[in-house]
Amino acid sequence: MRRRPKHQIPTKYILLSMTALCILAMYVSFSLNLGGGPLNSIAGAIFEPMQKGINYAGTWLSDKADNLKNLNDVMEENEQLKGQVEELTNELNTLKLEQYELDNLRELLALDQQYSDYKKTGANVIGKDPGNWFSIFTIDKGSKDGIEVDMNVIAGNGLVGIVIDVGPHYAKVRSVIDDSAKVYGMILNTSDNCIINGNLQSMNEDQVIEFSGLNDSENKVQIGDQIVTSNVSDKYLQGILVGYVSSISEDSNHLTKSGTITPAVDFEHLQQVLVILDKKETGSD
Amino acid sequence: MRRKITVTLIIIVCFLLQSTLFKALSFASISPNLLIVVCASFGFMRGRKEGIFIGFFSGLLIDIFFGEMIGFYALLYMYAGFLNGCFKKMFYPDDIKLPMLLIAGSDLSYNLFIYFFRFLFRKQFAIGYYMLHIIIPELVYTLLISVVLYFIILKINQRLERIEKRSAAKFV
Fold this sequence. Notes:
Chain B: Keywords: Cell membrane, Cell shape, Membrane, Transmembrane, Transmembrane helix. Chain A has 4 helices and 12 strands.
């Protein structure tokens, strides 16, 4: 074995210089609010297709597994259902009337109408934060598809989060349930503002996030009220549903209230999201 | 060169699996940390220097795709690789206790550091809760996975070393 001692740099110097490099990078990206820059483009080009592929295969497999499992259930159910058909035909007539009413009400509630003035684009979730502390995920659309930092992300019927970094063909989204996420919210009925912050602990235990600082002196806010994004928020567009009040209590200062919100979105099974291409005009720039 | 390509492939595969497949396979929203297994095992198998570089690049990947600032996870993984590298002299391939202990220690301290820097600084004081519901479950899950993953990495490393020895012998 040949040894070339003059090319060997001692390990401690490597460690020190790499540490300095990391700290410098942290400082730069934190203070200047920069993302990865060119790193984003390079890494994105390599990894994004692979993540997509794995997800595609994964969804296909779980679909197949579901199909097999369902087949047995379906056979059993078929017998039962045949008996029920007659019984239900009788009820059907009454239900038709109610159905008509329900349809009307649903149409009124349809959130798509509420958001229809915004331009949106659909995207798939391709990867989730590998650790267990934060709820950051990546989607398969990036700056080439017109996505920019601070755009709002929704899914089906509620707010998912906000874009915090973009690469050419992917974007990082921080969800509202992330422990470090903060959103200005507003109770829809009373227009009272509050601060919504994600919480890992309450999300793990009861699938809820917290709100605080609600000014509700007349005790009008009730459990089940809708909370939407507030008009005073500087990054979130107004009126996007965040969730429903699930508990409420008075703070020790007797002035404000805090409590928990059940998010409107099922974050556990998030696959498709919509990115709102309009950003909130704040007049700051 | 062969080693570099192989290691890069291992990191890429683990990163991809960790951010996609194992997120889908998570129990109680806890998923295992494959990259720490990779960093730790290469650390104590190959020494400090390789530990540093493997850790740095695995961490950088997480930083780019899921981190809020570049460099944080790179730093954590780098030190995991480095500190495990210090145990190279005590490492024997036949012994499973030390590797498991080191991997467990790495995962534990990795998560404690994340808690300390990213949660405690935001006044989330419930360390008991995080310990019981995040750190320990992840530790157990990671150890279960690492029983398999560690042997795969060990075998790959032994094969690489055999090839390297053979080609080094040719030159002498």
